[in-house]
Design goal:
The complex is a heterodimer of chains A (about 575) and B (about 260). With about 575 residues, chain A is of the alpha+beta class. Chain A has one domain: FAD/NAD(P)-binding domain, CATH 3.50.50.60. Chain A has 12 helices and 22 strands. In chain A, helix 6 crosses helix 12. The longest helix of chain A is centred in the last third of the chain and has 21 residues. Chain A is globular. Chain A starts with a strand and ends in a 5-residue tail after the last helix. By secondary structure, chain B is mainly α. The two termini of chain B are about 25 Å apart. The chains are: A alpha+beta (about 575), B mainly alpha (about 260). Chains A and B meet through helix 2, strand 4, helix 10 and strand 17 of A and helix 7, helix 8 and helix 9 of B.
Chain lengths: ~575, ~260
């Protein structure tokens, strides 16, 4: 029998960026917030031994323990879905800060086009441009409406960047200057300028100078140590919930984190949630935490899992295309790349997670799609993250992957290989979706999620187009040999790391028939449940998701406060 | 040095391997049992001390011992990894970098036992498509056992003497590894030879370049080959430079001032 705990104003399921932002915003206003976190409580001191590629990058120190819980995967409904048994294509973090601890810090706003992609596509190309089965829809909110929330996130984290020179792109004033210009970024910029494109420095959440944010949180600057993605930052220079919003929430005295606790269900009756049921994994005891508002603020997939397991919202049906929970799962179409081999050594061991340059000329609808066989696009970038030696073993075309020739080429090119990548938008399809697996269970006996996903011709054509653009730029940069990818994309492969930018499944929108949430991230079917996060994205863009996740969290915080005052549906 | 010897009883002449074996109860009625340890007894006990087995000053690496493999398995992996990452003019190979020790140590722990992977059934290795990833019920220890056995089974086919993989010529070893990579060999278990090969290649690269505390990358020689500086706190002064800046590598040992 679960022990009932005293009621609180707000309970959070997961304490990452979303949970942290909502905790900070609402505890500052005097509300009591309890954050339930499956992992441990993290601090900067945890990262004293962080420069360990094997432990963090290969053995996935900061990620969820898959032995307890994973999801199953299949390409289509005729295949048997099988568990994602070891980490590969995407990596889900745990512990306070969540995936906001191990991210790189590349921080972009989605485009005005992204939020109104259906209307914009129909307006410019007509309905016939949208292929059968593509579930394009508007988000029920515009960029203009979200702008103040983006500004809040940028100021809180201290993004460093410069204006995007591409005509028509949103003009953002960043609180800090961009990261250092290196020979690598400079070479990319001059080559793309020669080709008539519009390069700029990637907006970075690795602090570019000491910074004190509006909450009074002071942090030091990035040291460019080269250990960002999959690692925690020992300097606190990479913006993360642990060094920004969580201390603010704690300082109020109104916030309590319960680490090592896993929420199994949102409890609800008559269209209203009463609280959550969770297990303390150290004692094995079950608890009920009652609350006026439940915020589902875990990783995108875990949000979907919790709602399905709680029987909240209508599960999506891929045959009819009706229902909402599990709808519009999208990923990142990221396999168009070019590796260039140079005659000169660059200081590739040095870098930072968001040190890079890019062009947006082929993202969104900045280029004409009339004669193209895909919609949306990709941003094309070069980064200098710190080439760690286990992960980076680039060899020219036709060199085998082991043996003498491989050894010599991978060693000789250790500091001579540069990569340009195209981060492509992934658009939603009727038969790419998430539901509950009928066979496999987690450590508590609850069903695992089942992902049904594959690349479509849209993705393949996009990646080929972008791979060719990457190769064109690489040649212009003077590489003596170029190895391009993107022209031979088969089925989605869950084995190889691609991106932890999984989106959709609990999407926002203007219509309860086709969306789970309104523009305040409030559930249409349960007014005191809010589900901010990348699960709310109606489709994915050619940008990293965190900035948009952050903006949605600020929007939700405002909604929750309104709701606590007035009650009812906010839209 | 000599003073140190006096203080350390285990360096005393009296403490020979023979005494050690006697004291640890490995003899029955005064007869030393055969097997692995028996072979040590033919050696002169004084030789043990001359080579300074327990003297760190003599540069002995205590890490060079086995936690998981038996000697024959170790020899097989030592040879196979050297073909994957051989010694060439640009630097040392897997053997010199102690990659097989690294793999042994990794297999002995959570990695070898798949303790952080979802290993709940049912399993459908035959039905799975490759893009669904790891679908065998076997853990990595078991996959290595099967792979090593198969490497030696293939090796035995090379001549009437039924050689071990480690005793084959370089060309023969490469030929077998290529067959593994191309899935031309059948393992006696629910896993393919290419799956084993991919895993072997992955851990070989790890053993070359992981921090030396894990047992491979001897003396940071893997890093030195690539001019990778290992653990450093700051590259602010390097990044804007046009010329390549060489920095002597540091391991995490330098961070842990115990």
């Amino acid at each position: 029998m679960a022990t009932k705990l005293p009621k609180t104003d707000i309970v959070l399921v997961g304490v990452g960026w979303v949970g942290g932002i909502i905790a900070a915003e609402l505890t500052k206003k005097g509300y009591k917030v309890v954050g339930i976190e499956r992992g441990k409580e993290r601090s900067t001191e945890d990262y004293f031994m962080a420069h360990d590629e094997l432990r963090y990058a290969d053995r996935k120190e900061m990620m969820q323990d898959l032995s307890k819980e994973t999801l199953t995967f299949r390409h289509n409904t005729t295949q048997r879905a099988l568990p994602y048994r070891e980490w590969g294509s995407f990596l889900i973090g745990e512990g306070t800060g969540g995936s906001g601890e191990h991210w790189n810090g590349q921080t972009f706003r989605f485009l005005p086009y992204d939020f109104e992609i259906y209307s914009e596509t129909v307006k410019r190309y007509g309905k016939g441009k949208i292929p059968k089965g593509m579930m394009l829809q508007d988000w029920g909110i515009t960029y203009k409406e979200l702008e103040p929330y983006f500004d809040k996130f940028d100021a809180m984290t201290g993004i460093g960047g410069e204006p995007n020179p591409l005509p028509g792109s949103p003009q953002v004033k960043y609180p800090n200057p961009p990261m250092l210009e290196t020979p690598v970024t400079a070479l990319f910029k001059s080559a793309t300028k020669d080709l008539g494109y519009h390069p700029y420095h990637m907006p970075s959440n690795n602090l570019t100078q000491p910074y004190t944010n509006p909450d009074g949180i002071a942090r030091s600057a990035c040291q460019y140590c080269g250990f960002c993605e999959r690692f925690g930052c020992e300097y606190g220079a990479k913006a993360s919930p642990v060094v920004t919003v969580l201390p603010v929430a704690k300082e109020t005295g109104n916030f309590e984190v319960r680490p090592h606790c896993v929420v199994r269900k949102v409890l609800h009756t008559n269209g209203k949630a009463t609280g959550v049921l969770y297990v303390d994994t150290r004692t094995g005891e079950e608890f009920i935490q009652e609350a006026d508002v439940v915020v589902v603020s875990a990783y995108q997939m875990n949000n979907i899992k919790l709602l399905l397991n709680s029987q909240l919202g209508r599960p999506y049906d891929p045959v009819t295309g009706t229902g909402v929970i599990g709808r519009n799962y999208a990923y990142q179409t990221y396999l168009g790349t070019a590796v260039g081999f140079f005659d000169k050594d660059f200081n590739m061991y040095a870098g930072a997670g968001a040190l890079g340059a890019q062009i947006d000329d082929f993202n969104g609808d900045f280029f004409d799609h009339t004669d193209l066989d895909f919609l949306h696009g990709a941003t094309i970038h070069i980064t200098q993250l710190g080439d760690r030696p286990i992960a980076n073993n680039h060899v020219p075309p036709n060199v085998p992957s082991w043996g003498k020739e491989f050894k010599d080429a991978s060693v000789q090119n250790a500091n001579r290989a540069l990569i340009i990548k195209a981060q492509g938008a992934s658009l939603p399809w009727q038969d790419n979706y998430i539901d509950q697996d009928p066979t496999y269970k987690d450590a508590f006996g609850d069903p695992l999620l089942r992902m049904t996903f594959n690349w479509k011709d849209q993705d393949r054509q996009l990646m080929k187009f972008m791979g060719e653009k990457c190769a064109e730029i690489m040649k212009q940069m003077g590489a003596k040999e170029v190895k391009m990818t993107g022209d031979e994309i088969g089925d989605y492969d869950i084995r190889n790391y691609q991106s932890t930018h999984n989106t959709g499944g609990v999407i926002m929108g203007a219509d309860p028939e086709t969306s789970a949430l309104n523009s305040y991230l409030q559930m249409w079917d349960c007014e005191n449940v809010f589900v901010p996060g990348a699960s709310a994205f109606a489709q994915n863009s050619g940008y990293n998701p965190t900035n948009t996740v952050g903006a949605l969290a600020y929007r939700a915080a405002e909604g929750i406060e309104k709701y606590l005052k007035t009650g009812g549906s906010l839209v | 040095m000599s003073e140190q010897k006096k203080k350390a009883p285990y360096l005393d002449k009296r403490s020979s391997r023979r005494t050690f074996i006697k004291n640890s109860g490995l003899t029955v009625g005064g007869v030393v049992l055969g097997g692995a340890l028996g072979s040590l007894l033919g050696k002169d006990s004084s030789e043990t001390n001359e080579t300074g087995v327990h003297s760190a000053a003599a540069g002995v690496n205590f890490n060079q011992a086995l936690m998981y493999f038996d000697k024959a398995q170790f020899d097989t992996i030592d040879a196979a990894t050297e073909q994957i990452f051989p010694k060439t003019e640009v630097g040392p190979g897997a053997k010199e970098l102690l990659v097989a020790y690294y793999i042994d140590h990794q297999l002995a722990g959570s990695f070898g036992l798949n303790s952080r992977e979802y290993m709940t059934g049912p399993f459908f290795p035959a039905e799975a498509v490759p893009q669904q990833g790891y679908q065998t019920h076997l853990n990595r220890q078991q996959v290595f056992n099967l792979g090593i056995t198969a490497l030696n089974t293939e090796a035995a086919k090379k001549s009437d003497e039924k050689p071990k993989f480690a005793n084959l010529t370089e060309e023969q070893q490469i030929e077998i590894l290529k067959d593994f990579e191309a899935d031309k060999v059948k393992l006696s278990g629910a896993v393919s030879s290419s799956f084993f090969f991919t895993l072997l290649r992955k851990v070989t690269i790890e053993g070359v370049y992981a921090d030396p505390m894990y047992g491979g990358n001897k003396d940071m020689a893997g890093w030195k080959m690539k001019n990778f500086p290992g653990h450093q706190t700051n590259y602010m002064n390097v990044l804007e430079k046009d010329e390549f800046v060489k920095i002597a590598p540091m391991s995490l040992n330098s961070q842990h001032q115990h």
